[in-house]
Amino acid sequence: MSEFSHLDELEAEAIYIIREVAAECEKPVMLYSIGKDSSVMLHLAMKAFYPEKPPFPFLHVNTTWKFREMIEFRDRTAEKLGIEMLEYINQDGVDQGINPFDHGSAYTDIMKTQALKQALNKYGFTAAFGGGRRDEEKSRAKERIFSFRNAAHAWDPKNQRPEMWKLYNTKINKGESIRVFPISNWTEKDIWQYIKRENIDIVPLYFAKERPVVERDGNLIMVDDDRFPLRDGEVPEVKSVRFRTLGCYPLTGGIESTADTLDEIIEETLSSVSSERTSRVIDNEAAGSMERRKREGYF
Amino acid sequence: MKGLLKFITCGSVDDGKSTLIGHILYDSKLLYADQEKALELDSRVGSRNGKIDYSLLLDGLMAEREQGITIDVAYRYFTTDNRSFIVADTPGHEEYTRNMAVGASFADLAVILVDASQGVLVQTRRHARICRLMGIRYFVFAVNKMDLVGYSEERFNEIRSQITELAQELSLENVQIIPLSATEGDNVTVKSDNIRWYDGPPLLEYLEKVDIASDDGEKGFYMPVQRVCRPDHTFRGFQGQIEAGSISVGDGIVTLPSNERASVKGILMTDKAVQTAYKGQPVTISLDREVDVSRGCVLIKDAEIAVYKRLKASLLWMDDEPLAVGKDYLVKLGTKTIPGILAGIDYAVDVNTGEHIKTDTLSKNGIAVCDILLTEAIAADTFSSHKTLGELILIDRVTNMTSACGVVDSVSEKSDSSAEKASFKYGELTARGDIFEEFYYDTSSLNVLKYQPVKSTYTVGDEIPTSGESYKYPDSFDIIVLRDGVSVKVRGRKIAEILPTAEYSYSGVPVINGRGFEVKAGSDEDVQRFLNEYSETSESSQSAFFEKWVRFDTYRKVVVKSDKK
Lengths: 299, 565
Fold this sequence. Notes:
- The structure holds two protein chains of two kinds.
- Chain A contains eight helices and ten strands.
- Chain A is α/β, with parallel strands linked by helices.
- Chain B is globular and about 95 Å long.
- About 2% of the residues of chain B have low confidence.
């Protein structure tokens, strides 16, 4: 018997799930958010089908407020791996000038949740892989690996289908869809250790570097382009920062750090006293906010 | 450091499952500061008098917080200096039993809580039974709320004997019983000063040390095929996860159900070529020659696995719609999904007493041993010999609900031999004959279904049932079973003779075929023409042949059946 580590076990589980979806679901897509979890999921998909390419496209829902380095990384990755990368932007939202500074939670709803639903409807995808992990948030901890959505993309947490062993039931009726979370059982630490073991490319924003930031409500927000409206007296300062999670730059707080290697990041993560989602501005709301958003169709 | 331990907490409502896990996470400093802060905040608005309510760490759904109960499984991840853990905290309410079963199917060990002031309850017994059914082999009974019984050793001993009795009844191995208090923290992560009479380890220490033996007794190599990988015409590989044993380049394998032999040409462990691959690994296997293998087939080496059409399985019913005998479901077993009929219920099991109960239906959260008849033979085995090929779910074909899960207790009718159980047998002569099949129109699936009652074999002299719900034959008639070349003469509801069809001649009584349809023959010449034409039919002319010669509704009809019954 060869050595079969904790990471090998998680990898095998994820690959099994990804293959099941490809084999049973009519029109799958893998959501790609450019973050570290997506990078791991993409890597798993490449391994799952080798020597074939993944038999489904990838989809990035672009809010138009992502860090510039993320978009560059996305395009580079798609080209290098030779995969089909779709991009979807909610053009109505753009036309209405919806932005994270003036529209708060409506921004997340319109540019992320609504955009995602529009994209899934547009292409008629019946199953969408997401990089959600159960250790991220309490309502995620309750979600099945194969999570069903009705025709309005809503999640019914009180009536989830039982999921036994590895016998995933992928049957749906017309209009319904499934969200599939192959890395449900991974922790943040597993993700980093796997990135290191497999030498997976990730967006440079995860590594500490001198970047222009302003401090707002206790968060260090990077001034990534000239759309950032500085408040009176605010002057961007150059600090050595890195990001623990990546999203829309005005909503993603950085942490002061000098960790610029994977080992240092892992070390910092393991000794951290805050969970990763605290750096996401939208999560610091009332208990249950994530569940509410998921019920409305958020991933 | 020991490997990953996947465990569940279960037991009756309010036995303190979520509180126990919450306390372990809190005590072990396994929470991030912001989670701890959120917990204190949540507790203040909660109902437990401002004391920290550890269960709020687990009960993440809004409905759960509102009602103060656990509805669905929560998965938590933590690591101590000695081990990594994944714990599934499961609901105690009977209503949510199926969610508890979801957790049990995932775990290696179960922590079953027992309230010291209540003792072993029906729900405790139900959960223990389901854990056992799902294949859990390690059990901890945590006798909780010891603070409420004054840390009484006497009370603990009473409960311990109830537990021992239950463990014997269910033949549980590896049972540990620990007195503790989840709210007070006695014997949770550290040994309690209040329970000095107990000299075993506290719960967390036990979980860190318990050895989950990796040898599960499965023999040989087997891999259910998930998909065929064909990037171009030069490569064809079978992708799947190795469920037992190992495989090396050059090894001979057998394909199921096609039963072909081939040698392993190459193995990819994900994206790397390897000489040998082991249990648990995701691989792509290529063979030295073309074989008839697609998704749902199984590759085996040195494993005694065969293909079967009929399975006997212990089912846990999980659907609000009760089980309907005769209804067809989709059966998923390994990587194969095929239609199958729930042909009958042997008996239901009383979750409390374990008693076998005669029944013809099963409602949500019930357990029963059932007979499943698949539309084609597939590779399967008992849960105890080859686990993955002994696990199955039933899917409702209309609602798509996962109606039941189950484990295969026994397999029968190996269908690679010709011996499908005969209806008629006399010496060397056997005839299959399906004249006792019932035809139902199922009002929920809007399908006409055939239900094969448990087959009996009849021989000369036996009396046969000439009428059923959907058929009524005369007292005297002849049966010509075309595919077996055997005829049966029934006189006065008794079998008078079983003979080769070649020796059969018409004797003036009605003639039916092996399915119970009238043969339109009124003379021996008719019978001979009927037989001659049958021998000349091909697959494409078969329907014309039957159209000309047989009539369904002379002795048969379709009975409307609602599965609400």
